[in-house]
Design goal:
This protein has 182 residues and is α+β, with helices and mostly antiparallel strands. The protein has five helices and seven strands, in the order E-H-H-H-E-E-E-H-E-H-E-E. Helix content is 33%, strand content 31%. Helix 1 crosses helix 3 (51-59).
Length: 182
């Protein structure tokens, strides 16, 4: 069994908000610390990641957080999914947004992200969503390559507040067909 196959993928419950907040902040910081102003990183982490904020997400019926958990319970990655939102270029009647998608650096290139994305896409398709969309920082070439490899195509832009600065994110979308997602 390859290492990514040992991961347990499952929805996170509100009682797990503290662990979710810690893991999400850690993975976000790891993804952007080398390319971000430390002051903006601190503002963003304080605003976006905390037990109360993540508990509210987990209690929101429009949100689902799928985690990829290691056999020892550690977080390999996660994706936060939201129904009822759209951005420029999102044209589906029932779109699903990937609000966050992160893996621990130790899992990069080991199949965890691909498995997590496949689970997120399947989750949306079996629930009747006709497309999935996300936005990614224009300078995050690694993530953009991964999303394109997963069948996403750039369709627009959307502003993103990082710390005290507005940045441009690229909006990506992928059509969903419940018969062909797995």
């Amino acid at each position: 069994m390859s290492s990514h196959q040992a991961l347990q993928l499952r929805p996170i419950l509100p009682a797990e908000a503290a662990a979710y907040a810690r893991a999400a902040a850690e993975m976000f910081e790891a993804a952007y610390r080398d390319t971000s102003d430390p002051a903006n990183m601190a503002v963003h982490l304080a605003r976006e990641f905390g037990e109360a904020r993540q508990r509210a997400e987990l209690e929101d019926p429009a949100m689902t957080v799928l985690a990829a958990l290691e056999p020892d319970g550690g977080w390999a990655g996660f994706t936060a999914l939201r129904t009822g939102s759209r951005a420029e270029g999102v044209t589906g009647a029932r779109p699903l947004e990937i609000v966050r998608f992160y893996t621990q650096p130790r899992w990069h290139g080991r199949g965890a992200a691909a498995r997590l994305m496949a689970e997120a896409v399947a989750w949306g398709a079996v629930r009747g969503h006709d497309e999935v969309w996300l936005q990614v920082w224009e300078h995050n070439a690694r993530a953009r390559r991964f999303y394109e490899k997963c069948g996403f195509r750039a369709v627009g832009t959307n502003p993103f507040l990082f710390g005290d600065e507005w940045e441009d994110d690229i909006v990506y979308r992928r059509a969903l067909d419940p018969d062909t997602v797995r």
